[in-house]
Design brief:
- The chain is α/β, with parallel strands linked by helices.
- The protein folds into 2 domains: 2-76, no CATH class; 133-283, 3-Layer(aba) Sandwich (Collagenase (Catalytic Domain)), CATH 3.40.390.
- The chain contains 7 helices and 12 strands.
- It has helices at residues 26-38, 78-81, 133-137, 183-194, 224-231, 254-259, 268-283; strands at 2-4, 13-17, 20-23, 46-49, 65-67, 72-74, 153-155, 168-176, 207-210, 217-222, 242-244, 249-253.
- The strands form 3 sheets. Strands 7, 8, 9, 10, 11 and 12 form a 6-stranded mixed sheet that branches. The chain has a 3-stranded antiparallel sheet with strand order 1-6-5, with no helix packed on it. The protein has a 3-stranded antiparallel sheet with strand order 3-2-4, with helices on one face.
Length: 319
Amino acid sequence: MVVKAPTPRWHDVTVSLPRGRRRLGLPFALAFVIVAYAAGFGTGLVVLPFVPAHVDLAAVNSVDAVDAGAGTAASFDSAAFFDPDSGLGTRGAPGVVAAAPAADPASDLVAPAPAMAVSDVDPDALDAAGLTGADRSAGLLSTEVPPNASGGFVVVPGAVPAPGQGPVHTVRVEVEVGLPVDPTLFAATVMATLNDPRGWGAGGAMTFARTDGEAEIRVVLASPATVDAMCAPLETNGEFSCGRSGSGQASINFRRWSIGASDFGTDRTLYRHYVINHEVGHLLGHGHEECPGPGQPAPLMQQQSVGVAPCVPSGFPNP
């Protein structure tokens, strides 16, 4: 707090005594000064001339600033405006330390430091491997799409409890060995998609838990040739995915996971949501639907990998 010291009157003298402070009249004050001087200050008394009695100098601590020329004493409590954990002012904008409030609006204020600019990051920017940040988050390690892989699968280890309400469906995530993908990141994308508020569990209808043991639903990422074999007699032609309710397995074509579908548009992240929700939708008993009309969001169970128009792409059952 900034306190303005009024112009001192020459006959006002403040004396610090063991029992407190007293304002003395001029005759007694002069007598006291003479006695104190004659005693060589041996009494331990301290005389503070020309300091107004209402200014408490004891309140000025080691970080106080005194402007003698302006006749002001400024006291700042550093703990009140700086948060050492976050490095931010507790009453300021991010990156700006808030100044202590001034009692006098006319007092000079310290201009706050400008907020640090945050660089805009393009989520579609390609890295050295030709992948975007979204591709990396979905588990991709390369732009390569092998037509086939080992035919063997690794179960993504670990268990994640269901986060929502309603009946719990258990999910096991598997990845074909030999695909350029991070199984853990792929599994995380699958579960985030299934438990999205726009998903099948909207309104507490259901929720999904991941397990590496027996499960109601298996989500399997496989090469195009392996998907063809797993989906037969359905004809996926190395291009499409499938969900077969009899087996409880949603087979996700790695080609589609990597590059999306031309009819769907350029948003590969939205397409990945779509292909997981669509194929799991078959396991939950949902059949195919048609586009309801031009410009409307495509129903999730529309075959959007084949064609979206005249609807617009959609990746969730409850967008």
